[in-house]
Amino acid sequence: MVMKVAVVFVFLVAVRAVYGADIVVGGDSGWSQGFDYGTWAAGQVFKVGDSLVFNYGGSHSVAEVNEASYKACSSTSVIRSHTGGSTSIPLSATGPRYFLCPTLGHCSSGMKLQINVVAANATPTPPGTTPPANTPPADTPPADTPPSPPSPSAGSSGFISLNQLIFGASIACFTALFVL
Ligand SMILES: [Cu+2]
Question: Where is this region: Disordered (predicted)?
């Protein structure tokens, strides 16, 4: 039983990996007025194989248009129009896609969505982050660093000089004692 569940789970994960994700436009806000789809889209990655899911009320619909119509909020030359409250649009090719709500006044008040579809195997860089820079190999081999003098010799050299000083002083004292 557990094995069966595990197999189904792996299968579902694999299916999701192959067929991509359902991206709900606007998230919980859906396709509606008073939502900033530009900001929303900037935080999303749209890949080939994903699907755009539009959820909307009866006063709205979805029209796919070209760039010029998108910029002008014009719905006179619609590539594809969708109605019915829930529309899933598969993203089958890379490049920009433009959508708007053709209801009068809705596009100009923000109901417009522009996305850029990237290849499924593309590794996107989220906005605000820089791609990892190639770290250059260390060009200074460790052999170049001069060998540090062993610390015991430095200590003993000081010890020797002190010894020599004591030895010299004692010789001088001895000599003076002898002379006097
Ligand atoms: Cu609308």
Answer: 122-155
Residues with CB under 5 A from ligand 1 (ion): 60, 101, 103, 106, 111
83 C-alpha to ligand 1 centroid (Å): 11
Structural domains of the chain, ranges and CATH numbers in brackets: 8-118 (2.60.40.420)
Whole-number Å distance, alpha carbon 50 to ligand 1 midpoint, is: 23
Q: What's the CA-to-centroid distance between 118 and ligand 1, angstroms?
A: 27
Q: How far is the CA of 45 from the centre of ligand 1 (A)?
A: 24
pLDDT digits (tens, 9 = 90+) for 121-157: 876 555 554 445 554 554 545 555 455 555 444 444 4
Q: Is the pLDDT of residue 41 over 50?
A: yes
- Sheet arrangement for strand 95-100: 46-47, 112-118, 95-100, 62-65, 78-82
